UniProtKB/TrEMBL annotation:
Family: Belongs to the universal ribosomal protein uL6 family.
A single cellular component GO annotation: cytosolic large ribosomal subunit
Protein name in UniProt: Large ribosomal subunit protein uL6
One annotated GO biological process: cytoplasmic translation
Function per UniProt: This protein binds to the 23S rRNA, and is important in its secondary structure. It is located near the subunit interface in the base of the L7/L12 stalk, and near the tRNA binding site of the peptidyltransferase center.
PROSITE patterns, alphabetized: RIBOSOMAL_L6_1
Large ribosomal subunit protein uL6 alpha-beta domain sequence ranges: 11-82, 90-164
Keywords: Ribonucleoprotein, Ribosomal protein, RNA-binding, rRNA-binding
Oligomeric and partner information: Part of the 50S ribosomal subunit.
GO MF entries: rRNA binding; structural constituent of ribosome
Keyword Ribosomal protein: yes
Organism ancestry: Bacteria, Pseudomonadati, Thermodesulfobacteriota, Desulfovibrionia, Desulfovibrionales
InterPro entries (alphabetical): Ribosomal_uL6-like (IPR000702), Ribosomal_uL6-like_a/b-dom_sf (IPR036789), Ribosomal_uL6_a/b-dom (IPR020040), Ribosomal_uL6_bac-type (IPR019906), Ribosomal_uL6_CS (IPR002358)
Residues forming coiled coils: none
Length: 179
């Protein structure tokens, strides 16, 4: 049995879970989100607890059991607490600004890079070099953070670029003088 799939999910106060024919909708104080239902997995909501059950014991059913339990857990956590990723811009003259639904990056190119944020994602800056991406969808928050990091990934010699706040950059030695 799936260790993850068999754990029941507690529903916090203020969160409403609705099981439909093709999706499970979750509404909470931070917003609403839904996840798809797989035909091998069923849901039971009772007493502020959601249980995810599977129909059989095949390999694919076990995999879908754990996957869909985790997806539903992330939806519930997203609408109650939210998810965020923090990026840090490192380099002389590098800075980041948020203008409405656009993130403007000055990261050493001859022009500023404008990045349009998708719906459901918010961004704010802390100083000139930290950017916090937040939203209710864990997958979308991570994808937007990865796309912003791809604009100027950190380089190994001076460490300049855009990196996650908890990321460690492996540094390389530069050229050594020849004699």
């Amino acid at each position: 049995m799936s260790r993850i799939g068999k754990k029941p999910i507690e529903i916090p106060s203020g969160v409403d879970v609705t099981v439909g024919a093709d999706s499970v909708s979750v509404k909470g104080p931070k917003g609403s989100i839904s996840t798809a239902v797989h035909p091998m997995v069923s849901y039971k909501v009772a007493d502020n607890v959601v249980e995810v059950m599977r129909s059989g014991d095949s390999r694919q059913e076990r995999a879908q059991h754990g996957l869909h339990r985790t997806l539903l857990f992330n939806c519930i956590e997203g609408v109650s607490k939210g998810f965020s990723k923090t990026l840090e811009v490192i380099g002389v003259g590098y800075k980041v600004n948020v203008q409405g639904k656009n993130v403007v990056l000055n990261v050493g190119f001859s022009h500023p890079v404008n990045f349009a944020l998708p719906a459901g994602i918010d961004a704010n800056t802390e100083g000139n070099n930290k950017l916090v991406i937040s939203g209710v969808d864990k997958q979308l928050v991570g994808e937007v953070a990865a796309q912003l990091r791809r604009v100027r990934p950190p380089e190994p010699y001076k460490g300049k670029g855009i990196k996650y706040i908890d990321e460690q950059i492996r540094r390389k030695a530069g050229k050594s003088g020849s004699k």
